[in-house]
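Forwarding the complex inputs:
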Amino acid sequence: MLVSEREQLRGNIEAWVEQYGSNRSALIPVLEEVQRKYSHISEYVMQVVADILDIHPVEVSGVVSFYSFLGRKPKGRFIIRLCRTISCEMQGKDRVARQLENDLGILFGETTADGNFTLEWANCLGMCDQGPALLVNERIYTQVTPETVHDILEECRRTFGVYAPQLTEEYA
Amino acid sequence: MSHSFKQDCSRAPTSLRVQKINSPTLQVAVTVHIDDREIEVPVGTTILEAARQVGIHIPTLCFHEDLCVAGVCRICVVEVEGHRNLEAACAYPITAPITVRTHTRKVRMARRHILDLMLSEHYGECYACFRNNNCELQALAQEYGVDFFRFGHPEKPRYEIDRSSHSVIRDMDKCILCRRCVRTCIDLQEVGVLEVDKRSNQSKIITFGDKPLGDVICINCGQCINRCPTGALRANDPTDEVWAAIDDPSKHVVIQTAPSPRAGIGECFGLEPGVPLTFEMNTALKECGFDKVFDTNFAADLTIIEEGTELLLRLHKALVEQDAAPALPQFTSCSPGWVKYLEHFYPEYIPNLSSAKSPQQMFGSVIKTYYAQLNDIDPQDIVTVALMPCSAKKFECNRPEMCDSGFKDIDYGLTTRELAQMISEAGIDLPAMPKSDFDDPFGTATGSGVIFGATGGVMEAALRSVIELVCGIKVEDLFEHADIIPVRGFEGIRFMELPIKKTGPVPELLAGLVDDWTWLEGATLKVAVAHGTANAKKVMDDIKAGGRCSECHFIEFMACPGGCLGGGGQPIPTSPAIREARAKAIYAEDAAYEIRKSHENPAITKIYGEFLTDGPGGLLSHKLLHTQYTPRGKYIV
Amino acid sequence: MKTTDTSKMTFAQVESQRGLESALKMQPDEVRRTIADSGLKGRGGAGFPTSTKWNFAAETVGDLKYVVCNADEGEPGTFKDRVILTDFSDLVFEGMTIGGHAIGASKGIVYLRGEYTYLRQLLEGKLEERRRTGLLGKNVLGTSGFDFDIEIRMGAGAYVCGEETALIESLEGQRGEPRNRPPFPVNTGFMGRPTIVNNVETFAWVTCILVKGSKWFEKIGTETSHGLKLFSVSGDCRASGVFEFPLGITIKELLKKVGGENAKAVQVGGAAGHCVPASEFGRAIAFEDLSTGGSIIVFGPGRDMLHVAQNFMEFFKDESCGQCTPCREGNARLLEGIEMLEQGNCSMKYLRDLCRLGETMQLASKCGLGQSSPNAFLSIVEHFKDEIMGRIPAAC
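Prediction (whole assembly, three chains):
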């Protein structure tokens, strides 16, 4: 990260704290903003947030590590979370998983070398009647088949260069 | 005496706090039946507290008297009539009349399972553990007759032991996730080094970024060690090196003993807390093979003279020289945990720290210079060992700047526990030892040195000397038996004001420093005492905000709750009652001394007459007895 | 992505705003009495009487109180809250506002699970509209002195945050670890203030009850389980989706309606619920028999029940918050046991040990998650022992 970007990052965090309130209750909303914009929460960020909210960095780290949607390691531009819970499993999530791994050339928990895709498991996405389901960032896909995996990935690739968070607005 | 630790958990995660019941409809007292015994308790009393009041034993593990309630280990579960689930006795505040059973079939089964589950993740062989026979998990396994591992047992260690710190060693294989260390570090001490990471059975206690303890903002206070129920946390133990030095005939091994270990070591030999073994220990140390046994209190007295002089000079600067920004209040610097805390969290206040070294380090440089010259020993052959109640002292003696004698001033810091281990290894029954005195030339020191062990003690010692040296009166004229009660006790932060009505002549010891004290007449000396870094934080924030503490002239800080007597090197367990007993022992020892003021210590007069001839605060004392600090900050890259 | 036709549900027939209007004509205690008369119990699964909860919160003295809507729908097999929030969010917001009036709260928070972030904009839009039309904000519907507004807060992917005290911890910026109880949130909740936490569906029914009257609701269902309930149905059946049934419906009746008659077992209540074998399909879905937040997963004749148990235990092993010993270690040991069963090398003695361990987890865990996590394992072991014991592992 450039030093100038770092300065900007601090500015962003300060603005978010301003928005959500400068007490501990603002911690998770602020972290969610960081996660959305930077796709991970770095040690530097955790220390800055802790400093501003007057808590300990290790507490921030404890919070980040607790929630599946917050992460300390950089992730891909598109985070694909495939539901692994029973209803999706019964509807063939294993084959979708296999196809995802094949098409991306990575295993679950990994990120593609180009930094575009991260594969993760998710617990119940609440789409049990239309499984298998997966989330790409904030967008939900249902009744995914090994065949449509390709289309989903292509759709993501087409938006390459579009910063991930903007997908939200497009599909909301 | 009030213990301000347990209740004050304002920054603890809410789940770990005992929450107040706020409802006016509740009755004031309720009747509880526990195993057919009846007791009336105030609303909000926990089942555990009520059971203890009627003498019923309920096992606990994550519960600790000094800490907020967590209710996570579940070993204390009991059956409450009408409740579908078992309740954790430590975390269940009684709000209505209930009937409790503490050892039904369900309860026994649950406790046994919980133990089995803990053991299924606890790696370690009891006989190869420093907590053998002093381990709460082991004791519970015995209590519940565990004779096999129902749900398995790790066969190999899974974690590397973190030995990066001079003071604290972490062995996560022995951790049972009771979170006492987390609660100690985050809410008791407000240092914030340890926290739970991740969730589920992936959760683990880690430092920020899972970095080695030596690389994070740990202040080495060791309070986590004192509260760990197992051997997951321990002090960095140099006993092998100390034995090796003793065994080496070419080495002259001297040990200095601090006041707090004497008040605590008996606990390691089965005595009640608060039985001092000062003079028995002197004999035992000689038996162990130490060549000389010195009293750290001599150096404590030296500290009072140096630190007191420094304070008077700062006051002179402020009041006479009209210095716009004198570094006041002056902070004490004898607690190495506190010093590192300040270096990390308030580095901008380093100028306020007294530049005087701690007694341990002063003694080290004096031994390797003055003592070496007196006895014609090559300082290279002297091995200095310090018996301290403290784990941070191990870090302190390894600070690179601590070699003003030309050598490492203190070679090894031993904790009370480690010395007890050495003594038992030597086959010595400490309580049965005959008494013997400390060695010359430092001899037995004063009561002022002794009370360094209790919170407020440094302040009391300093005041005793300042009053007499400045005002020219006897402390006893102001305080009965020279006991300065307002600075004693366990209140988290204590204040005292001392109006200086008239002053006396400048005593010989301080001649040359100032012409007279008249500039202090009419002034009011304001002092404060804080113990535990959570309280230190309050004081520092108050100073920053320009509050009452910022008006003080001198503030004593101790990193550990209770002061040194509650140090991270003291016998395990610790509790408010144990610390109180140790404090009593310390004040009783003080009262028994003939000389109770630092400046009256003949050895002090002697060293300034013979060796530190340019007096307190002079050039040589600055070289040997003072130090500088490192602004560390808290950001980690 | 919509498979459920919601147009025939009760919710579709209730006119928004009418419930709030009628509530605001009443005194707060009248509103609570109306809810009490309806017999409404929490729709999240625990089945605690809504009016009792509200009464506690109303009686607790406090200048600031909170109404929290638990939209952290994470129970495997549950998706009715998603459907409600998509189609009937006004009823939910209205129910929260009624709750605010009933307990004297001025602030509402919707805790929406992170997986449903795509719903956020829709919901924010609805809230904005309600503010514009005076249904939220200062002096709601012109009622002087009653201010109420609702904020949406996002979860971040932790099932345990559906537990009300964990949810509050999460709102306070902590790890989502359940608290010791008592005190309960109605006494000491968000920021130490009296707080009611209710499920999305509960709030929607509150609105319906105020529109259609408590009698209407009370008459439906059984003696102790009143009213209608939404069910999320998935698995081996012809019609999966969200259905509205009266409480007290038997599994058999339900299966008939969704086309799952040949099922060999049904999981009622999601991973935390119970696995009911065909022999017990006559049992009723009601608080007094099989209590559920509405998750119904149908297992056809070909399903391997050990795999089902494994999936559930993997879920709990991952989602346990990790603070208390029985849940943290217990779930891991149960999952290991399943793996042993899979390999065909779990002794009957050890299986019994594990079942007793399950009992301990039910009894001694700190929160509902741990207490219910062994349910699926225990019921599958109980009913399908023949299927899971003595397996011959596939050749490696």
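Residues 1-24 of chain B have pLDDT under 50 and may be disordered.
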